[in-house]
Structures
1.
Amino acid sequence: MREEKIKRILEIIPGFLSWFIIFSLIILFILKPLSAIVVIIVYLLYWVARLLYSSILLLMAHYRMQSKKNNDWLSMCKDANSDLKFEDIIHVVLYTIYKEPENLIIDSLNFLKDTDYPADKIIVVLAGEERAQGAYDKLKAISDKFKQHFLDIIITIHPKNIPGEITAKGANATYAARQVKVYLGEKGYDFKNIIISCFDADTCPDENYFSCLTYNFLVNQKRYHTSFQPLPIYSNNIYTAPAFARVIETGSTFWQFIEGMRYEKFITFSSHSMSFKTLIEVDYWPVDLISDDSLIFWKCFLKFNGDYKTYPLDIPVYMDIAVGKNLLDTIKVQYKQKRRWAWGVENFIFLAQHFLKKNEIPFTVKFRKLYQILDGHVNWATWAIVISFITPLILFLGKIVLKNSLALFNLSYINSVVFHSLSFILLLCIIISWEFMPPRPKGVSRLVYVSFLFQWLLTPFISAVLGSFPSLDAQTRLMLGRYLSFTPTPKTR
Amino acid sequence: MQEKYYSFLRHFSFWLFSLAFVILTPVIVYYSLGYKFDIKSKKFLKTGALSIKTFPRAVTVYLDGKKIDELTPGTIRELMPHKYNLVLEKEGFYPYNMEIEIKPSLVNNIDVFLIPKIKGVEKVKFDFNIYGFFLLRQIFTEKILIFTDKGIYFLDTDLEGIKKVSEQIFEEHLANSIEEVIANNNKLIFWNKKNIWVVDISNENFPSTDTANPVYTAGKSIKDAFLGLRERYLIVNDGLKVIALDMDNLGVSFEIYTLNNLNAKIFYDARSETLYIKDKIPRTENFSLFKIEIMPLIGGRISNERRKD
């Protein structure tokens, strides 16, 4: 009972903070307009500093990725100075599949087959759902097509309505991983040598991904206390996706790119890899929560009393941009996907609840981690609203209330500095994003590059509408106890 | 580069930006509120600002005789609160001189339109004696109508393209008394307080008359005139009555309303064919507003006639 109350209080905190920031600025402006202007000036200056710092991180991340670009990872694996042998390392690549079309999965497996890593060291797991009719037959047909290319292909079908589970990707992945454990045990593999990669059905790894992953696994002294995070690049359907969807997903890539520079804050996101031994030790991915990709990191963090990190591999995995049947549907799909990502705020509740019982982790570490999650999510839900809506509103109404106030006059100037900072980071993104561009398919006009350039003009609109609102929506639902159900992102090509 | 260097660089950047934020924020906030630290008195002083916009741009600003480095548009900050003499100068324009007051924590917004210095005056290329002129605006064109000792002419607005439209000569005192001119269906309609004239400008072979005969002479004084009834009639308030003059058949007119007072005014809305009249209410000292919708009257009569048939 007490635990339930604590959980409810924790669920209220993020949404309450976000709404408090939004309303307090408006109420402060009504009561003391000049004070509100001063607060907004401080807030905008904070964002100028933050954006410029992010630009530095972006440049550093880009430089680091470039410096690793020409590494011969496979040779490095063979020569790696490690207590493990390269030859003993086996990869389990787990694809969670729901209703994704067959051609999409085939494309992903073709990419996997064509990596530079020996395919006879890769076991593919096609984890289907009983909820999707004809799942086994579809996966069997795919398996038959690719069986000879890999060490083995395992098909698992996650039964529906297992007590204690929600309909989410994590439940399927966990069910499949348990089957894999039995399979590997029977075959006599040592779990210490197994690296598992949990991929979405549309994940196409870069040709160096597995050799880079293996090398970093081999040389990492704390390999069992480390997750390995590729750089998710949403580009599989970039030439056919609407411009605004391209901008959003490229923004997500850059966010991961920047986050990858902050080791102590970096956590797993979407497709990721880790030791199978560790996965078993932490009892797999959560089956009753939506944000399985980030929660697996926190499960490990708690299990090892804070001694757990995510290592950025700086090697991409290519994924699909979420699109719908038409433009409006794509906006809906994007909104729902971002809201699901923003539901990652449940990490705060999960972690805080466990921290209360965990005395082995120092209080300062607990506080820093909780602050890190809250800071990220509350800023996500508020910054675009404050910058795109509240500041212009205060500038507009301020002209009526304060008329010739110098502070108001300077606020409009500082506001323009924020937008110049945004433009600067945007320019960096435009330049760097060209490097992530897949080759132009035949039949697509060169003119598409013009739209790729002008698509960035949509950024202010997108950051306002599809930036903060889904996050605020997710936090408000959590605050009101209206829990989100898992909505898989439709993957069509 | 090794991870430790990345880590160093990242931490360095983080602390640099954090430090910059912590140090600069109070400075910028104070500055934004108008505070300035005076080294001499070692005190914070409250200042104001002056924001200047001009048309044209790039005007030199002098404040109390001191030239400001920045050209317009711009903002001059950290001004001590008191009155200043502001001079705006740009070559080819008259200098703009004004007194402004700067108040603490406030911005004085100045928006100035500079007048160019007159360099040259153009003159029409002919030497007729011009008695009067009117600018006639139509949908796509703009013409100048001139009354001269040689007749009536149209001119383009660049003073070129002179074209004679009538041989009729209006004496100087008549031309000067004309209050308004309307160009309609190849006719020039114009009037003064007493008379209304119509000049046909469609005829290339100008009529031989060299005297101007009015088509209507007011009983009292012409106060208002409007084109109405599908631009066929001129609706005139002549002080005593409202009459409709047929512009196609000159000489035909109808009295459509008798006014009760000399100070009555009319307005004719050609779009809705409605006549509005401000007139005195009989046997009172009060004026009121009256309305006559012409088209329903015409429509009503036509339908009555059809019913009779």
Note: The mean pLDDT of chain B is 89.
2.
Amino acid sequence: MKPDPAKVLETVSMMLIMEFVPQLGSSYAQQALAGSATILAVARDEIDRAAARRIEENRALRRLFATAREVVTDTDLAARLTEAAAGEEGSLLVSDLDTSNQGLRGLLVRLHEHVEALRGDAARRLEAAIWDELRASTERRKTILGNF
Amino acid sequence: MELAARLEAYVVSRLPQAQRVTVTKLDRIFGGGSRETYRFVVDYREDGRDVSRPLILRRDPPASLIETERRIEFAAYKAFHGTRVPVPEPLWLEEDPRHLDHPFFIMEEITGCEASPMKLTGPPWDAHLAKIGRQKWTILGEIAKADPDALGLTGVMPAVTPETAWRHELEHWLRDLDHDELEPQPITRAAIRWLWRNPPPPAQRITVVHADYRTGNFLVDEAGTIRGILDWELAHLGDPLEDLAWGINRVWCWNRDDRAGGLLPKAEAIRLWEAASGLRADPAALRWWELFSCVKGQAIWLSAAREYHDGTNHDSILALAAWMQCNSQDRATLELLGHLG
């Protein structure tokens, strides 16, 4: 699509703030429309990175699960990790990538809880790797809005 | 009938001695995810003189960022009005929806002030940030020092004990989080497990907890004086460290540096609060409440996301709040757990 959807969102957002917000009579309407314009600006950034962020994260989680199989003591969890580690994206639609991501992140919650209860160096190394991935996940999700 | 006319009819009913009552300049205020807030002016004649009062209407919306109890909020304003904790004077609480479709209350408007953290970080307020910070943490200490029984709030707010206050709050916000999360939250879930494994010591005493005491929820005049503490909708009895921890949470660092609330270094904020409250902020206990604040914050942002996602409330502030805060809250959690790097 040309013009690019991202460009269109950026332009509409700017037009709303520069041209339409000042014409509104009430401060509530001004701030509500400015808020909506900000949403469009953030959505523009998110559209651009949405697929890349999910693909990168899903790959990172599958790699983590592949190494985790050797550490976990719960056979059901080990089987789920094996299956997830071998998984591939069936589609590159953002909605499909998101469904995969949610499944993988849900499995990560279960893995993390399990590993916390295990003893030994291997468990601690895996736990550290989980924290590394969680920290990386917040880098991937940074927006222009956040204070921290 | 439009809102202004219905509001005028209500005000007339509450001012039976007044003549020529009119409501004008009704204008909705943006923000505030838990109530619809409007300012308006009521003019009337009483005892041979003309009166003009700027007032605030706080009305329950169909769905909100935070499910809250307006009766408790109104009681908190009443309790603190006229004390060393500045609040606007509350006037009327109305829970009958026939007047304005939803329950509401009306209070005095404190004029000539600003609350928005975006504006407080700019002129003329940015010249007074340290002064604002000193008042902010001292007033919070005054809230912690106040006797809830003497304020008449123990009959309104549910009772808790020093031993159970933390559990009561954690369970409350977990219910919201479990209900509202739209996707897995591995960082918050790890924090919750840590909180259960490492319970805090009993509260030093049970006090009124404002529960949303942060930059953005108080009014500041252009000389940098705090004139009113707002948004008491989450107020309850509990551990006073809950308020201190919430106020110094990283997500409120509006200047994007280390100053708590965008105002003062965290250590100074804690020192001021201790001096005003007469209480001690035990570092281990405070850390528990700081991490709890991250879980509570995430529950609120996820609730905002849920409301917008489900279409029960289309206010853009809900989407903005979720987009602005969810990831920052996760990073704040990682920092407290020592995993931000």
Note: Chain A has one domain: 5-140.
